[in-house]
Write a structure and sequence with these properties.
about 270 residues; eight-stranded mixed beta sheet; 4 helices; about 30% strand
């Protein structure tokens, strides 16, 4: 009878074999880890803030008869560039007249636009003998001082554009339509206009459509999308010596506020206070 071979396993041999099996399993696992996958890219993303840049082109002229044989027109642009211009006229007499024209542009975004003024200040500047005979106010300046702003008559209109006529040299407001919404002031004085503007006046895209209070956007500083405001003034020949030596000061200011996401913009008057 032949003895069968006997196999003996030591603890060390058994653990070594188990370890080899474990390593083989681990190797097999690494070799089968290729999952399905895909990649898509959404690149070049940017967010850029828009702009709301209020620019106002202005034009002025004055006609003082023989004192100004040629109508003098001045033009410029106000765009936060530090430039300034004062419409200064001396030796004003009955029969003199002139224009102030403002052409606002709001670059990139439509906005609510308002025109306002701090009011007008009249100065008596003393009294000559002819003036003293018809004018007993004598204040300087302030309440009751000077009558010039009351004597100057104004008409405000909205125009498609403004230009200088090459033949006459006159400043022309193209397709001008007189604004009847100034509290039915006409005939209005410069004092009346200043009083109204002290409370602010909305500047519409078209005063014939006051339901649309948003002033249109322009692509750049040369693109006039909205209309111009023309203020024509005149000292009537019926005015007498009461304005002699008088003078006045008055400023104008435009304020624009974005229209988008601004449901209160149409009613929020920046000049209310």
């Amino acid at each position: 009878m032949t003895d069968k071979p006997r196999y003996t396993l030591s603890r060390r041999t058994m653990l070594g074999g188990i370890g080899a099996v474990g390593l083989a399993s681990a190797g097999a696992g690494l070799g089968t880890s290729a999952y399905f996958n895909d990649t898509e890219a959404f690149t070049g993303n940017t967010i850029t803030a828009g702009q709301l840049d209020l620019i106002v082109d202005w034009h002025t002229d004055v006609d003082q008869g023989s004192a100004t044989p040629d109508v003098h027109v001045h033009s410029g642009t106000m765009n936060g560039n530090g430039d300034s211009y004062s419409y200064q006229i001396s030796d004003v007499k009955p029969g003199d007249s002139g224009k102030l024209v403002f052409c606002p542009k709001i670059v990139d975004n439509p906005a609510y636009l308002w025109l306002g003024s701090a009011g007008v200040t009249d100065y008596e500047n003393g009294q000559s003998e002819p003036e003293a005979e018809v004018d007993t106010t004598g204040g300087d300046p302030g309440e009751g001082a000077g009558e010039l702003s009351e004597a100057i008559q104004v008409v405000v209109s909205q125009a498609d554009s403004a230009y200088v006529d090459e033949e006459t040299g006159e400043l022309v407001c193209e397709n001008a339509a007189v604004l009847g919404g100034l509290g039915n002031l006409y005939p209005a004085s410069l004092a009346d206009l200043a009083s109204m503007l002290s409370g602010g006046m909305p500047v519409y895209a078209d005063y014939n459509d006051t339901e649309n209070q948003v002033y249109p956007a322009s692509e750049d500083a040369t693109d006039q999308q909205g209309k111009c405001l023309c203020i024509e003034w005149e000292v009537p020949t019926s005015v007498g010596n009461e304005i002699q030596t008088d003078s006045l000061e008055m400023d104008f200011q435009f304020i624009a506020e974005q229209a988008r996401h601004n449901s209160d913009g149409a009613t929020t008057n920046p000049f209310a206070n």
